[in-house]
Amino acid sequence: xxxxxxLMLLAFPAFAHSEVETETTCFRxxxxxxxxxxxxxxxxxxxxxxGAAVKYATSKESIPLVFKSTEQEESSDGxxxxxxxxxxxxxxxxxxxTGEYVMVxxxxxxxxxxxxxxxxxxxxxxxxxxxxxxxxxxxxxx
Length: 142
What we know:
- It is a single chain.
- The chain is mainly beta and 142 residues long.
- Helix content is 11%, strand content 57%.
- It has a single domain (18-132), classed as Beta Barrel (Porin).
- It has 1 helix and 10 strands; from the N terminus they run H-E-E-E-E-E-E-E-E-E-E.
- The strands form 2 sheets. Strands 1-2-3-4-5-6-7-8 form an 8-stranded antiparallel barrel.
- The longest helix is centred in the first third of the chain and has 15 residues, at 2-16.
- It is globular.
- It starts with a helix and ends with a strand.
């Protein structure tokens, strides 16, 4: 009995442990400016935690994002059940909110993302580019 109890105690942390998952998504600006943007979303389902960061292709530094909200829209009016999700993050630089990113997706399909600069109120649209290779270790392979 003691051996079984010891084995369970040793095995329990493996069951309780969960890993942080990383989703890397690559975007390009819709306007002719050719801006390339990498979005990384980090999440831990067991801890009910998520965070994100963006990194522009011309920058060495990532910009931290703080989760703001998620809205889910469901429709089933005569078609198969569909649900789209709009997720909003705020950009934090130097302790101040400097921008906002809003991404719309339906399952694995990402419709796009819009960045709004807080000071200028300018909007920048980005298209998802799934054909760009990416990995959690190396990011977007521009």
